[in-house]
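Sequence design from tokenized structure. All designs in this work follow the same two-part layout: the structure record, then the generated sequence. An example of the structure record is given first.
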């Protein structure tokens, strides 16, 4: 098994080396021809006329090939991370000169080794491989034609001249050598074209991966920024610092005077052509301009039927192997525009929810607090009449009025001090409920505590409002009906859910014999609207527990 793995491992390494530097592989192939020439020279397999300058000529051929190999490998870029653009099949003047010198030097070796019958024929004919690989079919045919003419000339001027090459039994070998040269050029040129196609596909793939990474970074910045437009634009600009194909990225938006201003940028403001952004904003179309630094592109940030701003970008070169830069910038602009539009919609939704809550509070004040105050006023008038009459039940009635006034005061203070700051974005749910429970304890005189379990996470206005109202309703029921001395409120954050639990040590009630009133029905409705649930557990003489579960 190990004997079969060894050749496979060697072949794998050779294959990878070939893909990394095909010119190096072609020179390796030529070293094999040097080894063949050495066998012919030292084995005296050639006529003496072809060996009169040996081994000096063999040493020259080795030195000649060594110099060509080292120089070619030094100037030829490879397919690795050190290559700036990944292009490997590009003909440079230096490499063309090395190839020409290689062909001329190889023909010179043929000349000094006697022309026809030279042991260096294979060494010489393989000198056309590198030019054929680099130049393609057309130019490689011209190159091999020049080589063939040079070979014919060298054979004619050295050794026995054409007499030896065209002698009986040798003529077919002579023309076979020339045909072999053309076949080598055709095959190697074809391999070179395939290799160039592979390179182009590789460059396109790399460009596509770079573009995908660019879009991923921008999308990640848009998603992670939430509903804050300043954070969104700043995140997009910061993401651009890691994009090698962009010189800069900037976002401009109209100010209160409807003039464009830069809200975020990855470079200094002096480097940004704001006039180009103004032109794009006015026309609603992509605008471009060129400078020594690159191509500047301004794309309107259009979403929801309106232009929210302009995305400015500069690319190093308008021509790439992947998506054109202008198209990539337009794609990024589309993502940024959607993010800005969604942020605006989220703000509008929050404002709408706040407005709806304010309207609902107004209705509840009218139907609840106003009615309670009205009833309180009537009861006070009645109590005054009873005081004039000297009625004995006056103290009980006054105690009832005190309880009613506390409930009304508690509800008024809840409306004023707790919910408004949350709607304005100044408080979290835990702080809001802490204030609510503390206020309840001060007004009612009952011991009330709040415990928060888990890491607090932001809730929607609807979810926070529901928790506030459910806590309010539960505490109000404790004050009205429970005859309790202590209330414990627990707010628990779990993965995907939040739980609110209100437990009192009051008198409890029989759930089977009590008719659900408006308050309990209202609690059930609130939780169902948010795909949550509410459960109530109570035992006569052992208190009551209310548990609310809402999705986060």
């Amino acid at each position: 098994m190990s004997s079969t793995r060894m050749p496979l491992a060697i072949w794998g390494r050779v294959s990878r080396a070939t893909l990394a530097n095909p010119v190096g592989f072609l020179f390796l192939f030529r070293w094999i021809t040097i080894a063949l020439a050495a066998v012919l020279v030292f084995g005296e397999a050639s006529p003496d006329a072809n060996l009169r300058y040996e081994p000096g000529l063999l040493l020259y051929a080795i030195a000649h090939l060594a110099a060509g190999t080292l120089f070619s490998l030094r100037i030829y870029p490879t397919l690795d991370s050190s290559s700036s653009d990944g292009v490997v099949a590009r003909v440079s003047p230096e490499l063309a000169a090395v190839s020409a010198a290689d062909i001329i030097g190889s023909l010179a070796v043929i000349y000094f080794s006697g022309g026809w019958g030279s042991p260096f024929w294979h060494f010489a004919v393989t000198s056309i491989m590198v030019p054929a690989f680099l130049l393609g079919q057309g130019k490689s045919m011209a190159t091999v034609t020049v080589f063939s003419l040079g070979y014919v000339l060298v054979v004619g001027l050295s050794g026995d001249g054409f007499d030896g090459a065209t002698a009986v039994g040798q003529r077919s070998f002579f023309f076979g050598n020339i045909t072999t040269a053309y076949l080598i050029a055709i095959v190697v040129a074809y391999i070179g074209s395939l290799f160039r196609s592979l390179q182009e596909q590789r460059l396109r793939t790399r460009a596509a991966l770079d573009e995908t990474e660019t879009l991923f970074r921008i999308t990640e910045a848009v998603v992670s920024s939430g509903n804050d437009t300043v954070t969104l634009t700043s995140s997009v600009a910061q993401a651009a610092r890691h994009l090698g194909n962009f010189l800069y990225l900037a976002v401009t938006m109209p100010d209160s005077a409807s003039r464009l201003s830069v809200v975020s940028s990855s470079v200094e403001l002096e480097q940004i052509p704001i006039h180009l952004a103004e032109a794009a904003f006015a026309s609603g179309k992509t605008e471009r301009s060129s400078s020594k630094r690159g191509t500047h592109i301004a794309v309107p940030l259009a979403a929801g039927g309106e232009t929210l701003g302009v995305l400015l970008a500069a690319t190093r070169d308008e021509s790439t192997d992947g998506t054109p830069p202008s198209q990539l910038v337009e794609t990024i602009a589309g993502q940024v525009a959607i993010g800005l539009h969604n942020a605006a919609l989220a703000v509008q939704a929050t404002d709408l929810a706040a407005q709806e809550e304010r309207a609902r509070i107004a209705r509840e004040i009218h139907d609840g607090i106003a009615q309670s105050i009205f009833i309180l006023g009537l009861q006070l008038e009645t109590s005054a009449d009873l005081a004039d009459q000297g009625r004995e039940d006056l103290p009980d009635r006054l105690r009832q009025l005190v309880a009613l006034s506390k409930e009304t005061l508690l509800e008024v203070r809840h409306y004023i001090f707790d919910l408004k700051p949350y709607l304005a974005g100044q408080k979290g749910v835990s702080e809001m409920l802490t204030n609510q429970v503390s206020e309840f304890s001060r007004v009612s005189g009952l011991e009330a505590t709040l415990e928060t379990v888990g890491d607090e996470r932001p809730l929607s206005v609807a979810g926070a409002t529901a928790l506030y109202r459910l806590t309010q309703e539960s505490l109000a029921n404790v004050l009205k009906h429970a005859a309790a001395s202590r209330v414990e409120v627990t707010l628990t954050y779990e993965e995907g859910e939040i739980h609110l639990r209100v437990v009192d040590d009051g008198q409890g009630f029989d759930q089977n014999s009590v008719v659900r009133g408006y308050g309990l029905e209202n609690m059930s409705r609130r939780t169902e609207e948010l795909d949550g649930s509410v459960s109530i557990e109570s035992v006569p003489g052992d208190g009551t527990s209310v548990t609310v579960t809402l999705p986060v």
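DSSP finds 16 helices and ten strands in the chain. We note this feature because it recurs in several other targets discussed in the main text.
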